[in-house]
């Protein structure tokens, strides 16, 4: 039935995965609207239980991801190419670094660049445990330390782990661009079966919710900026309008395609964000203070990193870490497949060592600069200026309005604030556009022949989930985004541990011994559905044996990708006869003796 519906809608995807993920998303939207209060209570209770009882697991998990990546990069496996052994990198270092900058950090930096340092400055995370007073120099150092902890190496370890798995299994073993492909060393050909499909459905749903949370933060920030500039109130009605308008623009960008849509907007994003950062650095009159503070705070962060990476608020037990660190890690890991596939696609031809160092270091160092400038600009206003940031962000709880409160202390505040809103909108559009493309790729299992309607559906699905979480979830706002992130993040953390094992096992299977690092070659593998579909399309030209109906059809003159496990060649008649002969000999003699080698002469 799903196949008939799939063909009737003129789709080109895997029916079980597409309709399974789509059905759960639609069911969630309907159930949330119809049963708002019960679902909101259940979600809140479940997320609260997870934070109280498994928060340590989230924190330990991300630190282990970082340690594992450093080990892989430093080991002999670091010399393995992500692709054929003699292939050169597809992109230059400068281009690659630029694309890494655009991956996954736009919305994060715009929303939290001011809000996080100010929040911790006004309410120090370890104030009770270490005796740090709010709004002091010690509180400022503590605030920047935690901001860098949340948005540098640990966050990018969450992105790098699946990205490395995708890069290895897509470029090295030529498997489909799906999360299930990373489990091929464990599952073998079963990645194409029910278990693999279940993994991919979970991954797609989690990615949709993770991207929706990111976009939801952007909607809250846009609404907060419009309230300050033109008096538009922060309420559900205006948030729905913002979601509808920006989702519509994003769908137009989806229709324009990669070159005219995502690529152009991404370049505009990068230039605009850097321009805003440089404006804050130069125009505020505290340039030297910000530069010195950025360097000093990075040293303080590195020195305190081992403690921060394992800190669990054990004695004070204030609950702070649950609403900040645990939320961050759970939210980030839900949309890590989306960022991971993007990073994997642009990293073909690089070694694992280059990949890990580049993906961990480059975006992290930019985050150090970003939070140093915006964080110390905020501290300068609070310690040496008119203040007002702590009052709005901490006392009033207006986290989305933090950036615009900062800009109100700068020259041409109204114009610069409008510019900042435009940047957030563009980040919103590019995130939604690229997410639709990646999610569709995960559902298809290949990067060819993606009908426009499928990509538009996924863009619309993300917009619907965003609206549902912000407006119809009962709790609403940032609290609803936090609750759903913590719930969705748990299965992703469990999957990530299996990813580490599978990747390490694959490296040991494929890698040779030093000094030569030769690896086996893998042929291109398509999903079973796409294999059968392409074989049927070529029905008039080729003769082959249909794996479904076993009907004899023309055989292709060129190789057709098959759906088998790359480890196993399909048995032939000769294999069967040889097996029977060997079994007979073994039964007679206990073992089959090999012919004696000729050593004469």
Write a compact overview of the structure shown.
With 601 residues, the protein is mainly α.
The outline comes out as globular
Q: What portion of residues belong to β-strands? A: under 5%
Strand segment tally: 0
> What's the gyration radius in Å?
26 Å
Main pleated-sheet profile? none
Q: Please give the alpha-carbon distance between the first and last residues.
A: 70 Å
Unreliable segments of 5+ consecutive residues = 542-570, 583-601
Walk me through this protein's architecture.
- It is a single chain.
- The chain has 22 helices and no strands.
- Helices cover 72% and strands 0% of the residues.
- Helix 8 packs antiparallel against helix 15.
- The N and C termini lie far apart (70 Å).
- The longest helix is centred in the middle third of the chain and has 48 residues.
- With 601 residues, it is mainly alpha-helical.
Write the layout of secondary structure elements.
Blueprint: H1 2-8, H2 15-34, H3 36-74, H4 93-102, H5 106-122, H6 127-130, H7 137-151, H8 153-172, H9 184-187, H10 194-230, H11 236-283, H12 287-310, H13 320-334, H14 336-345, H15 352-384, H16 389-395, H17 402-407, H18 413-444, H19 452-472, H20 477-510, H21 528-537, H22 573-589
Helix pairs in contact: 2-3, 2-10, 2-19, 3-8, 3-13, 3-15, 3-20, 5-7, 5-10, 5-15, 5-16, 5-18, 7-8, 7-12, 7-15, 8-14, 8-15, 8-20, 10-11, 10-13, 10-18, 10-19, 10-20, 11-18, 11-19, 12-15, 13-20, 18-19
